Amino acid sequence: MGGLTDWTYRRFWAHVEHPYRRLRRRLLELAVPGLTILDAGCGHTAPNLQELRDSGARLVGVDLVHLEPQPGMELIEADLGRIPLPDASVDLIYSRSVMEHVVDPDAVYGEAARLLKPGGRWIFLTANRWDYVSIVSRLTPNRFHAGIVRRFEGRDEIDVFPTAYKTNDRDQIARHAAAHGFRIDAFERHGQYPAMFYRVGPLFLLATFFEKAVIKLPFLAGLRGWLYVELVKR
Prior knowledge:
This protein is 34% helix and 22% strand. The chain has one domain (3-233): Vaccinia Virus protein VP39 (Rossmann fold, 3-Layer(aba) Sandwich), CATH 3.40.50. A 7-stranded mixed beta sheet has the order 3-2-1-4-5-7-6, sandwiched between helices. The protein has helices at 3-12, 19-30, 47-50, 105-115, 132-139, 145-153, 170-179, 201-216, and strands spanning 36-40, 58-63, 74-77, 90-96, 116-127, 182-190, 226-233. By secondary structure, it is α/β, with parallel strands linked by helices. Keywords: Methyltransferase, Transferase. One of its GO terms (molecular function) is S-adenosylmethionine-dependent methyltransferase activity. InterPro entries: Methyltransf_11, SAM-dependent_MTases_sf.
């Protein structure tokens, strides 16, 4: 991170709500005592669940990676298509930056439908398959992803997972949702600062101009980087 990146961020992005904050704000609205909330793809330490710890809800996290025990929540190492919880036992499911990695969407949608109570809600924030980063990702073999992300974003390779983009546009989501008894209650497209280029000031500035155009111009809305989705079980 350098002077140009810092200036660009302060000038163009400091006042813009990141899609992560959009999701967090909604979860804090919905999380109340007595609910069972499931973070599907919670990560090693379930950081998003930790933000709901004061809600009074029962908090459950599921992921395939090794999970470190956390106070006040139940963490389960399992595939999202085979979660060892009873039918109709969950009020709210959410996933952040997970659905782009799902190889078998029917299994995951079906499992979410099984776990949710009637009227239960599934919220996920995921990459748009038509965002330029997603397009490059789809064209690049997964074996190269970790090195690219480490170079441009500085993330550890252990935190980079293969992508599939099988439920990452409106048509794909609508098709899977209808097939598994969900209705779409909210569908939003969001932009954000170009995180991929945060460590390269000139590229960060150029990508910012593109991102701002995508956010501002309605006919480019389909290229925004993030999809925020709320599904309700019928």
